[in-house]
Design a protein that fits this description.
mainly alpha, about 80% helix, globular
């Protein structure tokens, strides 16, 4: 414990150090097996560290997790979908960066949770109309209409720009599109790798990423590899239907946690 305090300059309780040291494992699993579950790591790290510091600590770990996932899934990427989402996400990223500069993370948490809950409702409405169309013998309306793409793309960029917290938003949109498991993983990974790379200079400019946060990253980094390897094992064994159920449940639970 003394080494951790002297190395990082942070005096944290034991439970907080445990969260920090194993947080990489949760990121590795989220990036390689259960997209959207990384929001739970975001919530735990915000409990263990000062809110703004937790955001800066998480970003480099997320980038390492992205690289593990890209090495495994990149061949399955839906390039057309990815390129269509990016312009909307860039607009949201800019808005999120602007708000992060002026508002505390604590004030933003319920906003992000409310956004996720609203988009869950959008998904349910979308599923209802798709089912109704099929029952009436009509082709269900595609999820890739400009409105949904713009809505989810903007808020995905918005959430990730503010607090690394838009995994459930992207997951919900890809569930609406009914992407198969591997394209789901690959396209999600590429999306966040691009967004996370763009956020690095923004967070440095805000002082959120600094030498102290990078020292904490060095301590958590080994657990990212362990979590990624465990995630590869999980994703090869989880059926598509159960995969969808887990992603949806995590998105809902994360939204409730952020709101309250």
């Amino acid at each position: 414990m003394d080494f951790l305090i002297s190395f990082t300059g942070l005096d944290l309780p034991g439970w907080a150090w445990i969260i920090v040291l194993v947080s990489g494992a949760g990121i590795g699993i989220a990036k390689t097996a259960v997209p959207g579950s990384g929001i739970l790591v975001v919530a735990l790290m915000a409990m263990a560290l000062p809110s703004r510091m937790s955001v800066g600590v998480l970003l480099p770990l997320l980038l390492v997790g992205d690289m593990f996932a890209l090495g495994k899934f990149w061949r399955h990427t839906d390039r057309k979908l990815l390129l269509s989402l990016i312009p909307f996400a860039l607009a949201g990223l800019g808005a999120g960066f602007f708000i992060l500069r002026h508002v505390s993370d604590e004030a933003l948490k319920p906003i992000i949770g409310a956004i996720i809950l609203s988009l869950l409702a959008v998904r349910q409405v979308s599923e209802y109309y798709k089912k109704k169309s099929m029952e009436e013998g009509r082709e269900p309306a595609g999820g890739r209409n400009p409105f949904l793409m713009g809505l989810f793309g903007f808020f995905a960029g918005f959430g990730t720009g503010m607090a690394n917290s838009s995994g459930p938003i992207v997951s919900l949109y890809f569930l609406i599109l009914r992407l198969p498991k591997l394209p789901f993983m690959a396209t999600t990974t590429w999306f966040f790798f691009i967004m996370n790379m763009l956020k690095v200079p923004m967070y440095i400019n805000l002082g959120i990423i600094n030498f102290q946060s990078l020292k904490i990253d060095l301590l958590a980094l080994p657990s990212v590899a362990g979590g990624a390897l465990l995630g590869f094992w999980i994703v090869a064994r989880i059926p598509q239907r159960r995969f969808n159920q887990v992603v949806l449940a995590i998105a809902f639970a994360a939204a409730i946690r952020l709101v309250i």
